[in-house]
């Protein structure tokens, strides 16, 4: 199993090499040369496996350059009750007679990104040790990604993390979660600016090739292939928990932003998992819903991206989308290059000729949700079932309802816990979300953060001073 670029300009590389890269050298994204196929017998043999073992079996199909026993150690170190609070790792709970919740947010930062990041932390440390290399991870976050990366990489040998966040723009919970980490290899930098300013600084420094090479800068952003591979696992897990017999179909509803989560569902389905529908839910930032409705992909400018109450889905362009388009055009890299050239030239591309395939061939359907929908859904869910859901999950629940079919379980992916977005819970219910056990004192813990003016040079100097710190 080797990896190629969606734009055709990269000679095939093994897993460990694409792990440490961001974009492919030709500007495309790494994808498997061909997808492994799962038979019904294999699936049946996986019933009842603990999550860590299932993760090992699935990831082994994608990772051929690491000895199997080492890979198994990593999945068991990533997915256990110490990290995820219980043996379930990803619990499946019925919400009502139509929907169930697939609980992806039991990890240390209460959002689904923990699942992929915990594996990434293990495999980064392993590969760096093998190569005697060090890595300086530089990132920008508006909340969930940065904290998940920090909790996964804290104390890892050979890795320093430099995470930029916009000063005063995250929720107090998110701030407390990140800034209370005291590990020597975690560096929180609060920039006097907005998220886009932080992102610009990252782009400036990562674009300075001499600096990037001298300090071995790396990224853990949503295009990282290892994150996608780790996310494929929970679609298998959800299917295995929701079905009893071979061939039974399940639908998944996915609150979406950068198209990383639902792309993993598309991959699982393409591997032969009996998935009926992949229901893509967006908030008011409906670039992806528009695509699945019209066939036209039209990313928005930052200024046209709304700040909503499901902020982790506030995206203007979906960074993983190219991987799906690659499949949609029958894995023709020349077509992908053409489409992305059109995007650069015209600000959009048109695949409306493929519209019938979206659902019939790939199972994709889509819908949107608004602030009022989120509030109403949080309230109705709580009143009906006593279960409190977060605003992102509420977008998923709202959109899922429209696509429920008799006899086919609909699993809504719970992408965060409500405590993380308590302001909106309070707006919906008149009371805040309870803090999970062990986190009651989070706001009181001492915080460690460096505040800086919005200036790439200051960040560059800071990295130069701290890149060698022992982890
Ligand atoms: C990141 C995130 C999303 C969006 O996931 P994508 O993989 O970017 O589509 C949805 N909900 C929450 C809570 C998130 O943190």
TrEMBL record:
Acetylation in keyword set: no
GO molecular function, one term: threonine synthase activity
Keyword Oxidoreductase applies: no
Broad EC category: lyase
Annotated Tryptophan synthase beta chain-like PALP domain residues: 107-331
Domain Threonine synthase N-terminal: 2-79
Gene Ontology BP annotations: threonine biosynthetic process
Alphabetically ordered keywords of this record: Lyase, Pyridoxal phosphate
Pfam family, one: Thr_synth_N
Modified residues (N6-(pyridoxal phosphate)lysine): 113
E.C. designation(s): 4.2.3.1
InterPro entries hit by this protein: Thr_synth_N, Thr_synth_N_sf, Thr_synthase-like, Threonine_Synthase, TrpB-like_PALP, TrpB-like_PALP_sf
Cofactor(s) the record lists: pyridoxal 5'-phosphate
PANTHER family noted in UniProt: THREONINE SYNTHASE FAMILY MEMBER (PTHR42690), THREONINE SYNTHASE-LIKE 2 (PTHR42690:SF1)
The family this protein is said to belong to: Belongs to the threonine synthase family.
Name of the molecule in the record: Threonine synthase
Organism: Orrella dioscoreae
């Amino acid at each position: 199993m080797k990896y190629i670029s969606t734009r055709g300009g990269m000679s095939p590389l093994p897993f460990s090499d694409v792990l440490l890269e961001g974009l492919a050298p030709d500007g495309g994204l790494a994808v498997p040369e061909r997808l492994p196929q799962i038979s019904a017998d294999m699936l049946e043999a996986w019933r009842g496996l603990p999550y860590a073992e299932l993760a090992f079996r699935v990831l082994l199909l994608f990772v051929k350059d690491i000895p199997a026993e080492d890979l198994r150690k990593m999945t068991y170190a990533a997915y256990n009750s110490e990290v995820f609070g219980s043996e379930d790792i990803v619990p499946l709970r019925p919400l009502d007679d139509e929907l169930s919740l697939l609980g992806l947010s039991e990890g240390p930062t209460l959002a689904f990104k923990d699942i992929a990041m915990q594996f990434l932390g293990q495999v980064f440390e392993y590969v760096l040790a093998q190569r005697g290399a060090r890595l300086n991870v530089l990132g920008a976050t508006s909340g969930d990604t940065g904290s998940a990366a920090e909790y996964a990489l804290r104390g890892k040998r050979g890795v320093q993390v430099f995470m930029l966040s916009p000063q005063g723009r995250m929720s107090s919970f998110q701030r407390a979660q990140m800034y209370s980490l005291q590990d020597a290899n975690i560096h929180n930098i609060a920039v006097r600016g907005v998220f886009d300013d932080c992102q610009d600084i990252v782009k400036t420094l990562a674009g300075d090739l001499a600096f990037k090479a001298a300090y071995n800068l790396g990224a853990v952003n949503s295009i990282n292939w290892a994150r996608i591979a780790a996310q494929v696992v929970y679609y298998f897990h959800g299917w295995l928990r929701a079905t009893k017999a071979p061939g039974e179909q399940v639908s998944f509803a996915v609150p979406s932003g950068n198209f990383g989560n639902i792309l993993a569902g598309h991959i699982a389905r393409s591997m032969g998992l009996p998935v009926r529908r992949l229901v893509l839910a967006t908030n008011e930032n409906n670039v992806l819903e528009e695509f699945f409705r019209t066939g036209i992909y039209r990313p928005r400018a930052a200024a046209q991206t709304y700040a909503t109450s499901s902020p982790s889905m506030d995206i203007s362009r979906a960074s993983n989308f190219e991987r799906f388009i690659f499949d949609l055009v029958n894995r023709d890299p020349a077509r992908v290059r053409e489409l992305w050239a059109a995007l650069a030239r015209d600000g959009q591309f048109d695949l409306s000729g493929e519209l019938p395939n979206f659902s019939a061939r790939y199972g994709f359907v889509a819908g949107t949700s608004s602030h009022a929908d989120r509030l109403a859904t949080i309230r109705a869910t709580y009143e009906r079932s006593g279960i409190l859901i977060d605003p992102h999950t509420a977008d998923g629940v709202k959109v899922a309802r429209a696509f429920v079919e008799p006899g086919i379980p609909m699993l809504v992916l719970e992408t965060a816990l409500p405590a993380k977005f308590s302001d909106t819970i309070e707006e919906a219910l008149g009371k805040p979300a309870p803090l999970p056990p062990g986190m009651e004192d989070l706001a009181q813990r001492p915080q460690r953060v460096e505040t800086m003016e919005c200036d790439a040079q200051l960040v560059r100097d800071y990295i130069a001073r701290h890149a060698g710190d022992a982890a």
